[in-house]
Amino acid sequence: MKKIFSAFLLLTFALFFSQEKPMFWQDIQHFKQLDRENPPAKNAILLVGSSSFTKWTDVASYFPDKTIINRGFGGSRLTDLNYYANDLLNPYQPKQIIIYCGENDFADNAQLKADVVVDRFKTFYKKIRAKFPNIEVDYISIKYSPSRENLWPQMKEANKKIAAFMKKQPRSKFIDITKVMQDGQGNVRKDLFVEDMLHMTPEGYRLWTSVMKPYMK
C-alpha cells in the first residue's frame, strides 16, 4: 500500500511541476517547431516583439521582395524578450532585426516609469549586439493604442529616450510610426484599430509598411 501511495505522490508531483512552465514557454516551443519543420533562411529580416507582430500573420505579403521571419508573441514585454533572448536569437542568422515591444510593459504596470522600459530595451539591444555586432537593428516606436490612452505619457517619454539612444548606436534606427497613424489634427486614428482599440486593421499595417520600407535591408 505504501508503494502505491508513494508512486501516486511521485506522479502527482511530476504532473504538478510539468505544468509550471514560464510564461510564453509554449510560444517559444512553437517557434522551435516551426524552425524544425522549415529551417529558417539566412540573411532574412527577423521581427521580434509582441502582438502587433504576432497578428501580422501576412507580413510577407506586405514586403514581397523581402525574406521575413516573424517571431512576435502576443502579450510579451521587453522582460520576456530578455528572458528568451537566446531562443529568439540563436537559431537565426539575420541581416536585420526589427523590434516592436514595450507597450505591454506599461500595460502590465500602469505606474511603471519610462526609464525602466528604456533600460529593459537597452538590455535586449546589448544581447543582440553580443551575438550580431554588425547587422542592422531597428526599433518601431510604441504605438498610441486608444485603449491605453492613460499610458501615453510614459510611452511618449520612452519613445523619445529610445530614439535618442538608437541615434547614437551604429547601424541602428528608430522607426517612428506615430505621425502616419494620426489624422490631420494630430489625433490617433481610431479607424486603424479593430474593436478592442489595441490591435490594428490591415490599413494600419499598410501604413506601417509605408514607413518601414525605407529601413528594410
TrEMBL record:
<dbReference type="GO" id="GO:0004622">
    <property type="term" value="F:phosphatidylcholine lysophospholipase activity"/>
</dbReference>
<feature type="domain" description="SGNH hydrolase-type esterase">
    <location>
        <begin position="57"/>
        <end position="207"/>
    </location>
</feature>
<dbReference type="Pfam" id="PF13472">
    <property type="entry name" value="Lipase_GDSL_2"/>
</dbReference>
<keyword id="KW-0732">Signal</keyword>
<feature type="signal peptide">
    <location>
        <begin position="1"/>
        <end position="18"/>
    </location>
</feature>
<protein>
    <submittedName>
        <fullName>GDSL-type esterase/lipase family protein</fullName>
    </submittedName>
</protein>
<dbReference type="InterPro" id="IPR051532">
    <property type="entry name" value="Ester_Hydrolysis_Enzymes"/>
</dbReference>
<dbReference type="InterPro" id="IPR036514">
    <property type="entry name" value="SGNH_hydro_sf"/>
</dbReference>
<dbReference type="InterPro" id="IPR013830">
    <property type="entry name" value="SGNH_hydro"/>
</dbReference>
